[in-house]
Design goal:
- The protein is built from 16 helices and nine strands.
- The chain is an alpha+beta fold.
- Strands 1-2-3-4-5-6 form a six-stranded mixed sheet.
- Helix 8 (about 190-205) crosses helix 11 (about 225-240) and helix 10 (about 215-225) packs across helix 11.
- The protein is extended and about 110 Å long.
- About 20% of the residues are buried.
Length: about 475
Amino acid sequence: MDERSRHRQFEDQFLRQLRARAQALLRRGIPADQFQLETLPDGIDGVRATLTRLERYDRNLLEQLPGTRAVELRFQRRVFGPFYKTVSRLRAQTLAPIEQLVADVPAEPVGRDAVLDALARYDLLPQRDRPAAAVFASATGFTPEARALVHRGGRPTLILMGGRADGGWDVELPASVKGSTWAKLFELETQDERLKRLLYHLEKHANQLESRGLSVPELAERLGVPREEAEGLVRQACRQDSRLLTVVHEGTIHVCRSPLAEESNAMSLRSWVRKLLRLKPTIGEQVRALTAQRVRLEQQRHEVDQRLTALESEERESVEQGAAAKSDAERKQLAGRLMRVRRDLRRVRAQANVYTQQIDILGTHIHHLTLAEEGKRVELPRAEELTQQAAEAEQMMAELAANADLAAGIEVGAQSPLMAEEEAAIMEEFKQVAAQSASTAAQKAPAPAAGERAPAPPTAEKSKARPEMG
């Protein structure tokens, strides 16, 4: 899919989801009983003006570019009988970097000037036709300067919605809208779609997920959602995938993945009973507990590695400064600091080595437990059954081969004697026609011209012996 088609697909998705969201929130999330949708020429007029400035007068190009569609949603409330009162006007359209799309160069986020140009169109409208809010969307997002326009106030209220690479939305709302019921109108992404985005990021960072885990604040930043919502999505993902589990380390929740899935929901009650009776936990419970312990150790080693990196950097800087020092006093100061740094380095490296060995031991134990449990969960045939089935298969193949040979030997032809005679007569007729065609071609061959020697007929190979002398 080229860049223009991607932007047009984003435009269609944005307008479709906004309309569906408005329909779903009527009389429940927003103070309106119905809305009327009207298509406006704002978008296509803006794109046409840009093409005119670029001196590109191609109608086919205009139809290929995004940003040509704009709509107005008039939200109305019933006041009496069949009469309705308009409570709010909302205009929505997508803004695209038209110049870059025309030049077939990578598109960049929409800037402040493009947003101001789109807002300037509303200043020319009569007061009664001006919208209360304007929603602009962009597949490439908006620059920080453009997002700052949202919080400057004034009419109309500005809302910017940028598309994310993972399929989500970056919504910039002013404070007056964020605290009202109208904020739900711009939550175009459903809970299931956000859960899919979370699972996408977990799979994208599978190595970290299976080692030290992913923290909830880190996931919230990747998803572009508040931390509380990210924590709820993590809980939902753990209920959906039994291999996922959460580990709390220093007050922060981390999500990780166990190599062994939990058997079923019924086993949870059984595990609780086993724990109440102080019985030995199952292999799955042991693997999950060891995985949580390994994740905590991985987090501790990650913190030690960061400290180790800082000390190593400080050691290199001290050595370089000592080599460049011009006095013994400065060298002595740097030498004392380098001694302390290297002493701390030895201690931190020893601590990191301890964590590494502990993680290796736990990883080996988890690996062996997982292999043994997975081998038990799959019921395989015994050696006697394998031998019996192999003998039966061999006997069946031998009988099938014998029957195939017998069928090939006793196959009866479907051609009768009269059909054979007719076929022989036709073959003879083919030969006669071919001979007649060759004779006719030889008669039509041109005679040799005067002075030219006719080609000699082929003779036997000349003798290589010399002629005798007479």
